[in-house]
Amino acid sequence: MSDSTNDRAKDPLPKDRAKVVIIGGGIMGLGLAYNLAARGLTDVMVLEQGYLCYGASGRNGGGIRAQWSSADNIQIMKRSVEICKSFARKMGINIWFRQGGYLFLAPDEEILAGLEKNVALQREHGLDSRLINPRQARAVVPQLNTAGIAGGAYNPQDGIVFPWPFTWGYAHAAREMGVQVYPHTRVTDLDVEDGRIRRVRTDRGDVVPEMVVNATGAWSPVLAGMAGIELPNRPHRHEILVTEALKPWLSPMVSLLGHGLYFSQSMRGEIVGGISDPDEPESLSLESTTRFATRFARTAVEVCPSLSNVKVIRQWAGPYDVSPDGHPIVGEVAEVRDFIQLVAFTGHGFMMAPAVTELCAEWLVNGRKDPFFERYTLDRFRDGKTGFKAESMIIG
Length: 396
Ligand SMILES: Cc1cc2nc3c(=O)[nH]c(=O)nc-3n(C[C@H](O)[C@H](O)[C@H](O)COP(=O)(O)OP(=O)(O)OC[C@H]3O[C@@H](n4cnc5c(N)ncnc54)[C@H](O)[C@@H]3O)c2cc1C
Description:
CATH superfamily of the largest domain: FAD/NAD(P)-binding domain
CATH class of the largest domain: Alpha Beta
Number of helices: 10
Bound molecules: flavin-adenine dinucleotide
Helix content: 25-40%
CATH topology of the largest domain: FAD/NAD(P)-binding domain
Number of domains: 2
Distance between the termini: 22 Å
Number of strands: 18
Radius of gyration: 21 Å
Strand content: 25-35%
Order of helices and strands: EHEEHEHEHEEHEEEEHEEEEHEEEHHH
């Protein structure tokens, strides 16, 4: 998708300084802007090179789940699910949140054993997840073909949202409180002097910041590079499609582990789904391919034969923002003061943003720094401190 508006002559920005300059108008940037403003810090500017929802935040599957393999991710997602429940009422925007559950299918005993461990951990953290056999999986989705399925895991509290109104909801509420949100404003360079970013250069003029937040998702290595910081996360295209609307028949998001397949039914009746591609090279390409449509259709129809007669109406692509250990890169960097990273959330940044941006604002405004912002800093890749078990519940 080209962003032709960036080629137009641009009006200069109406403001040339801000306490906090957030670069990236996706769910992370806008969620943080909202949460800062909600805590009284309103001298905040969000700079977005395209339209709001141009990046992964406008291109994802809307899956919201607490079924993870690490305690950190489970805890974060428990909070995010809570925020999702009250978001529509609080923000006055319908986010089409539906808690139909998430059903993970294991194609073999090894993956099933992993699910068993995860379910035990999730239950320790108070989730209602359960390990299920193929018959029980069919009780959740009667249309499933369970041949070749060893079992699965199911949590009825997981769900889906429609990502666009969710992102717009944060933007609107942040603006209402005084945050300046500027779409079609590309950051072109960062001037670093004496270990701080003194000037954020954009194609609409310069801004003098006190603090800069890198919330540019898959573009973040480029952005950080402008300040001389090398990030190890890399962009990978992830394709997705939507079918014609059907009568409601599919309650949970279904995911076939080991294949990276997932699909759910939106509240409007469409099936929305994707499949990861192990051969996808590193790139920021947002092009669509027939290879994806074919691979998705083949696997989805195997899992759910009734999908064979359904018409695809649209497909698109977005960037996954992938770090070497599958965990995000957040918090401070050693070389540049007051330059906060909020990136590398792979294929689950949307669902994590409500809780992560709340925690981040609590730190930046009230000084209460959650260990999350110490544990997942860039430093872990430098001093070999990482040692984190890779998250096993990433789809893609
Ligand atoms: C196909 C697909 C399916 C997914 N499914 C799910 C899912 O079901 N659940 C889930 O939780 N997550 C999912 N994800 C992942 C999720 O979408 C992302 O983790 C999340 O949206 C990241 O948000 P972000 O704000 O960090 O990045 P983005 O939404 O990508 O925002 C970054 C923004 O920065 C802007 N930017 C970049 N460079 C500059 C610059 N120089 N100047 C100004 N602006 C700039 C970009 O234009 C972009 O809008 C999926 C992703 C894809 C691609």
